[in-house]
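Summary for the steering committee. The consortium agreed at its last meeting that each partner would contribute one worked example illustrating the joint modelling workflow. Our contribution is presented below. We chose a case with several input lines so that the handling of multiple components could be demonstrated. No manual editing was applied between input and output; the record is shown as generated.
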Amino acid sequence: MANKEDAEPVTGWPRSLRVNSLFSEDELIEDYYDAPPANGGSGWSDHVPSPRPPVPAFSRSSPGTLGDRMDGTAATPLSPTIKVGWLDKNPPQGSYIYQKRWVKLDADHLRYFDTEKDAYSKRFIPVSSISRIASVGDQKFEVVTNNRNFVFRAESDADRNEWIRTLQQIAEERKSKAPERTSMSLTTNGAADPADKSGFLELRGFKHKLFVAVAGDKVFLYKNAEDYRLGIGITYIEMNVGNVKEVDRRGFDLTTPYRIFSFSADSDQEKEEWVEAMQQSIAEALSNSEVAERIWAVESNRFCADCGSPKPDWASINLCVVICKRCAGEHRGLGPGITKVRSLKMDRKVWTEELIELFHQIGNAVANQFWAANVPPSEAITPASGSQERRRFLIAKYREGKYRRYHPLFGNQEELDRALCAAVTTSDLAETQALLFCGAAVTCATGDPQCPTPLALAEKSGQRLQMEFLLHNKTSETPRLEVGGSEEKPYSVPLPSVTHNGFLYKTPSMAKPVGERKGQEEFSRRWCTLQDGVLSYYENDRNAVPNGEIKVEEIVCLVNNPPHAHGIESTFEVYIESERLYLFGLESPDSAREWLKSIAKSFVHPRAEELLALDFERIGRLHYKGGLNLERAKEGWFALAGSTLHVCFEDSERQEPLQLRKLQELSIQGDNEVLVLVERRRTLYIQGERKLDFLGWVHAIQKAAGSSGHTLAEQQLTESDVPLLVDRCIDYITQCGLTSEGIYRKSGQNSKTTSLLEMLRRDARSVRLKEGEHQVDDVANTLKRFFRDLGDGLFTGRWGQDWLRATALEDEEAKIGEYRRLLGTLPTVNRATLKALINHLFRVQRFSGENQMNTHNLAIVFGPTLFQTDGKDYKAGRVVEDLISHYVKIFNVNDQEMKKQQDEIMAIMKMREAASSGTQQAGDFICTVYLEEKKTEAEQHVKIPATMTAEELTFEILDRRKIVTKEKDYWSCFEVNEREEAERPLHYSEKVLPILHCLGTESYLVVKKQMSMENMLIYLASRVGDCKHGMMKFREERNLLGLGLSTGFHDRYFILNHTCLRLYKEVRSHKPEKEWPVRNLKVYLGIKKKLRPPTCWGFTVFYENEKHEKQQWYLCCDTQADLREWFATFLHVQNGGALWPSETSKVRASRSPQDSRLGNISLIPLRGNESEMRNSVAAFATDPLTLLRNV
Ligand SMILES: [Zn+2]
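What follows is the complete predicted structure of the assembly.
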């Protein structure tokens, strides 16, 4: 298959011709091409489209043979052919043989081809460059340009004369359209427009680089830069049939139905620019010329209102003039307060029927009667005028109104305004124009309360065109001569409707995150404007056609990079909906900030404008789910500033700050699909709707949620402003180390301390310290190391000495007072941390009987650590000793707090006793379990050893409450998921600890009777076979968060056997649509109400495969019995048939006696602390759940 192209030459297009069609034996060109390869030119055939070229949908080419498309009309020429035929062309030097050429003349070019079927010429000569056509005998004629002559020989004198006559006529017509433009003065290239992009490119098959110019809707190929200047080229490609595709780092293909041009640029950046320019050219070629044709229907609109160039395809929609591209560029420089530039061909939306009609009524004729009433010939411009001349003229004409026909009322504001109010009620647009641009105020008071403005008057009078004219001039400035007449500040006019413009550095847009640092050389300087909801970038400040543009409504995110992130001091990134990002840069941080603010203002929704006031590093819109309604994703506006994420939720007017460093959880779910932020009172799910900007957000939020430095305030914090790292260590020591001998004095292992500290510093949130995995001395040492290395110290550099000095105070009360005062001066985080630490040490010394660490010993250890001294200054230790001794007074601890602590200490002591008696298991958790229902009175706190089964837990709870179990009381432990409003009875042999680790904050455990167990056991005992099949109603959701499209419930046929569950579209289906291994399913009873299950007998099923991909779906049965049978079968299959233990007594006998006096003291929270956990649960449960239903 590799040489398929070689094996199948393109039909109807002989290879030699293909090889030759761009080639020429012409002495001017042939040296520049590679000779055809020896194998007959496969160099070309590689990239000739095969077997059929992709014909773009818009091409008018018929899908017939290639021959069809090769004829003159099928090539979708933009200019109709005027004369065509075979001629002999003068031979190149050194040869006497005339060459037969197919010669084609249209209004713009004389071209010749190898054959009549070729789409691309060997040579083109712009008609505008032809100075003379002369007969030179022997049926020959000569086409003279200002630098080269071309001699052709016709077949007869008649034919020759016909060619001469036609050529002369066309050349004359061309001259008359551009009267000032003599062929001798022509120095610009033959393409009428200046190139949008030009330069050298390699073209595959050619030895030398060609000079390529993208201009308007065509791409021109020249032998070299000199030819480009002269305007005489090889061929041009009409881009209405073009298609550009990037091939590799530097290469790209321009594909047309006739040929693929494989170009290669010097760098990938160059390539991007070429691709962009060519795509723009295609857009221009494809643009509807219907508007232009209609505007040009009026004779005066066929030539530029300012310079007289033919076929002007730009316009100023407020001045109602049609202008050429070069003038349009200068118009743009005047700013939209003076002239609003639009393309006739590209800005299709702006061209309403009213506006087109206005251009018929006013247009160049009426406009120039006013604006150009008095133009001295010396100041007029021509199509050949340079840009300086042009700019000077346009400033004089429109900004200063220098050539205006003054209205008789000029200077009399009141009269002007009154006259305007009268004029707008008539059809006299010329009068309105004169009044408006001589000073009448477009928003003047009419004195008519019904119609307070001229616009309202026009509307009342039914003057549509007057209205249209007034609307486009709502913000127009009145022309005025400038004092001092400085002409060198063309862009200094204040432009109220221009949001922003200026030069920016820009790299080509990207589809991937900006990976590495970009050097300055990778940026190009571009003139950028932000106006009318479009951010456009131009080659320079005088180009009319942008190289590209970004519509602000497509912007989804704006990122302010840190200074010097790239080779340019300030850079920012603009992300758009279609997954691309643009990197801009500026040398001045101030200007960069202005750009950022302007762009942000342009795309951020007004309801989120509060965010604009922030010094954001990232701002944009994202979809999120949160609050009580997780059904529908909403759009929110987010801004990240420092470690705070500010959010404007969809349904709220005010922004809400989320302290990222205080998050309880920050995780990514799915395959980078959802970012989960758990705060104390809520959970927020941010969805990755688009990849590019979402990944940026994820990284930025993760970074902002982490520690940013070595001071206390820069750490991840708990809700009470204590660094999470400190909290984690204290918690752990409290749980496992209070009775450990020499705690905080023993040093632990240095390497372990170092790595643990590093881990906690990086992300304390994700670190769970576990007994068995971590040694208490290592953790203790980590805490000390943290304080010792702390930037600015716990007591701060500023106040540290004052604390030390306070120890000298003899009077105890005075000393305590001073400590309290100093405590008040500490920053919040330092104060909270100090309190947490001293509270902890206070508890540690209570166990000094076991751990040998009394207050004095602790002070010796912690003094130098906290004050970061060498230990010789005894005062440091004294401060700590005082703080511990007077803990209650200094920190203002009330009785209730003290009582709570006492209870905790009691509980801990009990537990340690149990531990020393050998029943303690490593990795114990203490967990809240409810009896029968979730309410405070039913709360039990149970230590869960790693080996504990659901059955053991159940009996533990029943024992504590002294509940006597009767026969056929199927007491079980259930896992209840409040969010899903579903529950699952744990199998009696299931280990509880792993379940606890997976429980989210919206789940809990409850022990209650399983009412359906009896019936399930009866069903299982009586059924035949061990499969179940039948119809159920099925509903799928994409993942655990219920994202994606919900499709409602649909009837499906299911078969459950001993290994898998299969879903069939219908009973008769042969192949299952889906199939899941039963062991990977978790089946819960109940379906959340929001999904509107069709019956109340449903399951929620979670599926997770080996790759941890998750799915969630719902099944609904028609009857309770059906549900029971399905559920029993699931349990039966998943647990190898054993639903209920046959000998419960065994378990009970083996259980170790547990201390029931733990009561409801919560010691070790699963996530955050107990009250936080309950709060988050409460946030989800506003209405009484009905999930405790029994099957
Ligand atoms: Zn012009």
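The pocket of zinc ion is lined by residues 304, 306-307, 309, 323-324, 326-327 (CB under 6 Å). The radius of gyration is 42 Å.
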